[in-house]
Design a protein that fits this description.
- It is a single chain.
- The chain has a domain of 143 residues: Isoleucyl-tRNA Synthetase, Domain 1 (Orthogonal Bundle).
- It has 18 helices and 17 strands.
- 45% of the residues are buried.
- The protein binds zinc ion (ZN).
- Zinc ion binds next to loops.
């Protein structure tokens, strides 16, 4: 199986907030999971650096445009590293190799006769870099930014999106899982069903962009430029190799709901027009809401993901965002929430289990974990775990898969309470049962570490280390009886040490 996963490329008009980190983390979890299963996996993220907004915001910051995009792209790259994303490449749309690919791509559509010249007049939100119809506005304002759009009139190049309605509907009908979750599929399909207008794909007044190859006085519309990154990056992401024949169209795009129309309607149509295959699948996720409002720079209610990581570490932040809100839905997040799950679930459920298990092996068995033995009554504790999680992650149910894993963690905790190793250790009659119980706990934790590794990439190896187990994260490890007999297990240091509760001012 080949899996090419993408985040949207992030717009460098501002610095990263937790909404960006969210998509990157979710995509990373899937990428790590697929690699674990031996799938040929490629994970792309990056930055969108053209468009009208950029020179304006750069000027406001008192910077040259290139210096400005370099600075903000670096901030996104840092965010990517700090959340511990395992991306294979980081694309920037100001990369000349991308710019050349954009020209090649639009030229293909132009040569196919699907682009024509016309005058555009309409209402334009410069923040969205998108036109709106009167009906789409809320009280005459941009539904995303709440600002009054500008009336714009200019000669543009247009793409015959309207000609693709039937082919798009057919595509949706043949692929009922083309867009997930289902309600987003319905939203995209009904948008197409209502009829599509041709879209302007160039800007006459904008210099900061990729020149239209047959009319260099104009630049390619930033959204078209941006979407093409998914295709262009494969041409140069790996030195001396063109990955497009290998990985296209095995692409799964992850994106937030505000850019559904561009990804689920316009992008497939552009690909069809260019004679290319459409993406395998798109997953549209919701917003992390902070006090019921979408978190974004323009609304000023930003949690800096890097600040949270400074306090809690990357793993707890990764864990929190996908655990707190069902992936695909909107949901509320808070700093108190991060703290609460850190203490209760990571600290108590998981961290204490590792501490107790290693401490009991050290105390009752002098640090020795014997070969696999069966304690008896329990049956296979881990039955179904690997299959369940794999199936859920294949359908992008990152939250559901994590809940399934947590069920396992809770049942291992229950095992300690049921078997009471401290009582079994009182005399020799309990020796076999004690060996079996300690093995089941250690083996269960080992398997949990493997299955959790995509979520907690720093913690998983530490769990294996504390049990003196090989640092093997391959998927075959998600099964019973794979723990190898070892000696020298010591009481483990806390995986999630205490952190001061956030102050009300935070
Ligand atoms: Zn807007």
């Amino acid at each position: 199986m080949r899996v090419y996963l993408t985040t949207p490329i992030y717009y460098v008009n501002a610095t990263p907030h937790i909404g960006h980190a969210y998509t990157t983390i979710a995509t990373d979890i899937l990428a790590r999971h697929h690699r674990q299963r031996g799938h040929e996996t490629f994970f792309l993220t990056g930055t969108d650096e053209h468009g009208t907004n950029i020179p304006r915001v750069a000027a406001e910051a008192g910077l040259d445009v290139k210096a400005f995009v370099d600075r903000n792209a670096a901030a996104f790259r840092e965010m990517t590293e700090r959340v511990n994303a395992s991306n294979d490449f980081f694309i920037r749309t100001t990369d000349p190799r991308h710019e050349a690919a954009v020209q090649e791509f639009v030229q293909r559509i132009y040569d196919a006769g699907e682009i024509y010249e016309d005058v555009y007049a309409g209402l334009y939100c410069p923040r969205c870099e998108a036109f709106y119809t009167e009906a789409e506005l809320v009280d005459g304002k941009c539904p995303v930014h709440g600002i009054v759009p500008e009336y714009v009139e200019e000669k543009n190049w247009f793409f015959r999106l309207s000609a693709y309605q039937e082919r798009l509907l057919d595509l949706y009908d043949r692929n009922p899982e083309f867009v997930l979750p289902r309600f987003r599929y319905n939203e995209a399909r009904s948008f197409i069903e209502q009829g599509l207008d041709d879209i302007s794909v160039s800007r006459a007044s904008e210099q900061w962009g990729v020149p239209v190859p047959w009319d260099p006085g104009q630049t390619v519309y930033v959204w078209v430029d941006a979407l093409i990154n998914y295709w262009s990056a494969l041409a140069f992401a790996r030195e001396g190799e063109d990955l497009r024949p290998v990985l296209w169209p095995e692409v799964r795009h992850l994106l937030a709901k505000d850019i559904l129309k561009f990804h689920c309607v316009i992008w497939p149509a552009l690909l069809l027009a260019a004679g290319l295959d459409v993406p395998r699948q798109l997953f549209v996720h919701g917003y992390l809401l902070f006090g019921e409002q979408k978190m974004s720079k323009s609304l000023g209610n930003v949690i800096d993901p890097l600040d949270l990581i400074d306090v809690y570490g990357a793993d707890p932040v990764r864990f929190y965002v996908v655990r707190e809100v069902q992936f695909g839905q909107d949901g509320n997040v808070s700093i108190d929430g991060v703290h609460e799950r850190y203490e209760r679930e990571l600290g108590n459920d998981l961290g204490n289990l590792v501490s107790r298990t290693t401490a009991m092996i050290a105390r009752y068995r002098d640090g020795r974990l014997p070969a696999a033995t069966v304690a008896g009554a329990g049956g296979d504790q881990l039955a179904g775990l690997g299959d369940d999680v794999a199936q859920q992650l294949e359908s992008f149910d990152i939250t559901g898969a994590l809940e399934r894993i947590w069920k396992q963690v809770r049942s291992l905790n229950a095992l300690v309470e049921e078997r009471k190793p401290w009582e079994l250790a009182k005399d020799d009659s309990g020796a076999a049962a004690l060996d079996g119980t300690l093995y089941e706990l250690a083996d269960g934790l080992r398997a949990v570490a493997v299955v959790l590794a995509p979520y907690l990439p720093e913690t998983a190896p530490r769990i294996l280390e504390s049990l003196n187990q090989p640092l093997d994260l391959s998927w075959e490890g998600v099964a019973s009886g794979k723990a190898v007999p070892v000696e020298g297990i010591k009481p483990a240091a806390p995986l999630f040490p205490r952190v001061e509760a956030p102050s009300a001012a935070a």
